[in-house]
Design brief:
The chain has 107 residues and is mainly alpha-helical. The protein contains 4 helices and 2 strands; from the N terminus they run ββαααα. It has one domain (10-103): Ubiquitin Conjugating Enzyme (Roll).
Length: 107
């Protein structure tokens, strides 16, 4: 994926109504990613449209991994990152690498 070997940290907040209401997922870093807002919120489809009480933490983690490997450019929170991914893959990869280095996410 675009963040290979990076150590990423996400905060999951579970509402009192969990599992009937989905948790919120926020990146602890300002990642360059189409589905992660620059302020941290993550747009993960299963947390919005596909949430049901039978889903568990594993589904969220696998959803995050999949989102990092295959960003969804059709529903971006970061439109600039989505446009770059769609129109200029080498630049998108370069921007991800710069983000990782800037945040010192690889040790």
């Amino acid at each position: 994926g675009y963040y290979k070997n990076a150590k990423l940290l996400f905060l999951l907040t579970f509402p009192k109504t969990y599992p009937h209401e989905s948790p919120k997922v926020v990146s602890r870093y300002e990642l360059y990613h189409p589905n992660i807002d620059t302020t941290g919120p993550v747009c993960l489809n299963i947390l919005r449209l596909g949430w049901t009480p039978v889903l568990c933490l594993n589904a969220i983690i696998y959803g995050l991994i999949n989102l990092l490997m295959e960003p969804n450019i059709d529903e971006p929170l970061n439109k600039e990152a989505a446009n770059t991914l769609k129109n200029n893959l080498p630049q998108f990869i370069s921007n991800c690498e710069k983000c990782i280095k800037k945040l010192k996410l690889i040790q």
